[in-house]
Amino acid sequence: MLGGGIGASRLAVPLAKALGPGRLTMVVNTADDLWHHGLRICPDLDTNMYALGGLSDRQRGWGVQGDTFRAMGQLGRLGEDVWFNLGDLDLATHLKRTGLLRGGATLSEVTADLAANLGFGTRLLPMTDHEVATVVHTAAGEIGFQEWFVRRRAQDPVTGVGYRGIEAAQPAPGVIEAIRAADLLVIGPSNPVASIAPILALSGVREAVASRPSIAVTPVVHGVPITGEGEERRARSRAAMLGALAMEHRSRAVASFYMGVASAFVVDVHDAEEEGAIADMGLDVVVAPTLITDEATGANLASVVLSRAM
Amino acid sequence: MLGGGIGASRLAVPLAKALGPGRLTMVVNTADDLWHHGLRICPDLDTNMYALGGLSDRQRGWGVQGDTFRAMGQLGRLGEDVWFNLGDLDLATHLKRTGLLRGGATLSEVTADLAANLGFGTRLLPMTDHEVATVVHTAAGEIGFQEWFVRRRAQDPVTGVGYRGIEAAQPAPGVIEAIRAADLLVIGPSNPVASIAPILALSGVREAVASRPSIAVTPVVHGVPITGEGEERRARSRAAMLGALAMEHRSRAVASFYMGVASAFVVDVHDAEEEGAIADMGLDVVVAPTLITDEATGANLASVVLSRAM
Fold it and tell me: Domains of chain B, with CATH numbers?
């Protein structure tokens, strides 16, 4: 599976459960990663790690369940603008990661170490061990993705998107091999521009993905109202980033993004009218419920996706 | 005042109170600083900052009052050996510092920023903006000071002491000027080898100190039993480090360390028999109670010391 953060993790958990231990490998976007307060923070890796490790806070949608925010509260008292809120338990992940990176370990090694200590059966691979940074072009200048998305709440209109360092970055060890060995590749319901494009842009990844049977799940569900600030912001950011590439915020635009890469595409039942346009792009279209709101909807989408591997 | 951590901070607080805001400048040892879990930690600066800012945990002797240890607990669950325990509130200091250092700020700038946010009237200067590391030579090899003192509880016999990086280090901005402008220099009741020697070893500091009236306070009180694991360990570390330099763990040995630097020396009332030997070194000897156990004993020692400035 290729994916970003929250959207991908919601599908990864039921996929991992359906497949059983050791059968799912995730290649996770790291272009949203950032240095903050001296720490290396990998939001997408951590979201998946916490979700797969059973630690994630489902209500809040990010971070560790039952976390407290004492260090960040104190940082505020020390005059810092705390816009990227890190829980005290969550901090342990970033402290361990940063310490190991400073000691010369690669992000792949750190990620494997963290996953081993949390003990879950899914192999989690960062897309690269190099530093890549998604940058959003706005009227206020070029802004790092997390600063735009978290600090500025994805409010600035986006005129362009760049991935700093992507040319020099290489896929992390095992990424190309895992893709080439996959029975089925799943492109998660992630922001295609923020989360999937950087993975596909790494040397050799697009070709490797195109060589295997694959199915992409739409992150866009147009036919139902969006509720919750988090979901709204995620939709707004997808729309803004697709818009910067002159694309609509519709499943057919996401599908066009994966033309020549994915062989099948899951469109939501609420957007069944997109089916024809997507089929015309040469993709096998599956119409299914894609909103994962509980265990049953997750298990259902996982089985829809996995039926392509038969 | 020149000083290290706990011992110096106990005298700094009543000195600052007696002098009033803006009249005490502290030059603090940074040779015990360390990189740990990716963070830059400055134990001596922080101990003084928390003490002067009214945040310190007096019972524990280190860290912030009322702190919790959730991040460290989680680090343990992530497989880390947590030997340098950082509280969740304390972490905010290291996060802010490390973030600013990564952004190109100097330790002096970071320290001034932290102090300004905590709002106290003592000027706190790191001895240098360069990285210096006190290293203890033991049968187990050369060990960083904090690893020897905290992790290994100062148990390994010491055969030598080194200060890595000291030759290349320069005094931080304002250090030499503050010393040369001082009405009186106070050398705190700190470990002379661990805390004071690195300050004096910086280019120009020894000469600047020798040019001004100065009074050193003994950290050694021989005539009364030591209680508490922290006090015992601090005494053991002083004895071990003085021993590595073929010196006894007595006030006369500390005084000899300051010959040609300090003009006066405070020996504890319990060790009055040291007076003659110290006077023979050409130091003015003051015999006074030096153990600070409460506000009254602190105020008394501050007034003994400050009487030298008259």
Answer: 2-32+123-309 (3.40.50.10680)
